[in-house]
Design goal:
mainly alpha; two-stranded antiparallel sheet
């Protein structure tokens, strides 16, 4: 669980930005958590709209036009599954707050 105070958020902001994902198999380049990957992983890559506009991974859409990018837009968690799963986690274990991919590997 991640601390939610301002100091912790500032420390975490740039943490491991240049590091590969901890569940990426270096030998094969494949995700070892793929079938159970978190919402963030499921939505990374496709264009996703936020209050800042349409966010996109430049590596995935290198050279694409704005129209091509917009055609691939994805709605993140349209069924609000993440909030349901977080509520279930809180109800079951009393845990709440932000988590990391490593948390998914700990079970």
């Amino acid at each position: 669980m991640l601390s939610e105070d301002v100091d912790a958020e500032q420390r975490f902001e740039g943490f491991a930005n240049e590091e590969p994902c901890p569940v990426l198999d270096p030998a094969t380049g494949t995700c070892e958590l793929y079938r159970s990957r978190p919402i963030t992983c499921r939505s990374f890559g496709p264009p996703v709209r936020s209050e800042d506009g349409l966010g996109v991974c430049e590596l995935c859409f290198h050279g694409a036009t704005d129209e091509q990018i917009a055609a691939c837009e994805m709605e993140v968690d349209p069924d609000e599954l993440e909030s349901k799963l977080l509520k279930e986690l809180a109800d079951t274990n009393g845990w709440h707050g932000r988590t990391l991919i490593a948390f998914a590997l700990s079970d």
